[in-house]
Each structure stands twice: as C-alpha cells, then as structure tokens.
Amino acid sequence: xxxxxxxxxxxxxxxxxxxxxxxxxxxxxxxxxxxxxxxxxxxxxxxxxxxxxxxxxxxxxxxxxxxxxxxxxxxxxxxxxxxxxxxxxxxxxxxxxxxxxxxxxxxxxxxxxxxxxxxxxxxxxxxxxxxxxxxxxxxxxxxxxxxxxxxxxxxxxxxxxxxxxxxxxxxxxxxxxxxxxxxxxxxxxxxxxxxxxxxxxxxxxxxxxxxxxxxxxxxxxxxxxxxxxxxxxxxxxxxxxxxxxxxxxxxxxxxxxxxxxxxxxxxxxxxxxxxxxxxxxxxxxxxxxxxxxxxxxxxxxxxxxxxxxxxxxxxxxxxxxxxxx
Length: 325
Ligand code: CP
Description:
Layout (H helix, E strand, L loop, with lengths): L17 H20 L10 E6 L5 H12 L3 E6 L11 H11 L2 E6 L5 H11 L4 E6 L4 H15 L6 E6 L10 H12 L3 E5 L8 H14 L3 E4 L2 H5 L4 E5 L10 H9 L8 H4 L7 E3 L12 H4 L6 H20 L1
Parallel strand pairs: 1-2, 1-3, 3-4, 5-6, 5-8, 6-7, 8-9
The chain binds phosphoric acid mono(formamide)ester.
C-alpha cells in the first residue's frame, strides 16, 4: 500500500502506479464499508473542493458533492457558462485563484483537443491537487469505479475478458475518454481486452500503443475486432457504449452521418446470451435506452450499472481523502 499520495493530481491513471491504484481501491472498500455501517469518516473536515464543469453531469457532480460532505468538507459547484470564465478568466488564473480558496480543484472539460490541456494548465498554476472529472482523453474516476465493480462481482479479475465495445446512440457524439481509459487500465490488472468498433471509431494511436504495451507486460491478450457479435462470444464483461468518430472527423454533421450507418449495434438479450455464463453488463450512464441497449439487458440480471454508479462515490472519496488531507 502506498501512503504518499498527499498533494498529488489525478489527471490520468497512466501517471499512477499499479500499487497506487490498488491503494485507492483498498481505501474505497474501507470507505464503502464505513458508510454501510454508518461510521462517520470526516477525513477532510473544513476542506473545500472546487468542482468546475464545462459540460453536463449527473453522477459525477452528485457523487463528488455527496462525497465531500461525507468526508466532513464542502464542494463548490462552478459552471463555466455562469462565471467570468466565459469572459476570459484563463486556466492559469483559475489554477492560481481557486487553488488559494480551496483544498482541491476538480474539472470536467471534454472539448476535443482542449480538455486535457486545460486541466494540465490549471494544475500547473495550482497549489492544491487537481482531479480530472473527465476530459477529451481520459475519465479516470469512471474506470476506477469500473475496476472496483468488476472485482466485486467477479472476484480476482486476472484472466477474465472485458469487451470494450462501441454501440449505437443517436443523442450526441460522446467523448472517447472512457474506452481509451478502459483499454489502458484493464490489462494492468490482468484482464484480456477485446476492443470492438466499426472501422471509423478508432481510438488515438498513442493510446492504442500504451494499451498494447500494458497487455504485453501483463501477458494478456489485446484484440481489436470490427464484428459486434464476435465481441460478445465468451466474454466475462460486456462494456458497450457509444462514442464519436473523433479520429475520423470533428464535423458534427459528418460524425452523425457515420454513426447512422450502425444502428444495429445495440446490446440486446440475444447478444448477451453469447457471453460467458455469469457475464456482467456495464455502462457508465447515461445510456440511450432501446437504442444503445435494450431495457431487458440494462434492467436484467446481468446488469451491474447501479453498483457501478455507486462505486464512483467510494473511489472518489478515496482519492480525495488520500490527496487532499
Ligand atoms: N458516468 C458519468 O460520468 O456520468 P455523468 O456524465 O452523469 O457525470
């Protein structure tokens, strides 16, 4: 267990060692147990987290805010549109100023080609830890919660197979940060990874290189398939969600046209039946119901989406307690 995390940023899990991530998971399990038993755990009494959002959120906002209250502190909700950020406050100014008012700064900025850079610019100017609540490249708190959930449901994840698949959704071009984070994190913990998508929905080449390198080091398989049904066969974890064709085009209309070609990429009962016995269905939410996944699957016995959403709370509390105390 690593005990020297105070003051650290969490912008990408790639910058945290496996042992540090294991520490987060151990602390998250302790905090989950404490909450279930009603045991107070005010590790961050009188501390304040600034939460800066450039993009909508349900789970991330609610879980960070609840988590800070449960740790004895407070979370400030700040939206870019209703502050002077819209009128020119720079990333450096935000880092300097919010860092002086607060004990941590959490940011969600998923703008393609902008988000990660913005968070790093704030971090460079901040005297307190900066936490990535999702950017264009990574969604570390989501995938930490995913790893915790897989371990809870399947036990030791080593040797299990996770299918990280694209799925059709009509609502909007979703960021590629979750599949990118999953394909890099899961092999580090011994899971075989199957990445499945239509040809237009590739991930970034340097992320693919990292994922392959993690798989090589862990001696697990990393496969890329373009056949949706094949992705389900014999897998232990189905993680199928939509993302945008960012690497192909940044034009919204062209992206939407490409997505429309794959309307049959829906997770349904027939496809889930192809998976291994006891396989679980995961989705970070929000899902496009009966477009991306049927009600029968997301509300069915294989679905763990609510436990997955709950675990956001516990892993975030663990990281905040370890970095902001
Ligand atoms: N999974 C996730 O990040 O949910 P929100 O977009 O609602 O925060």
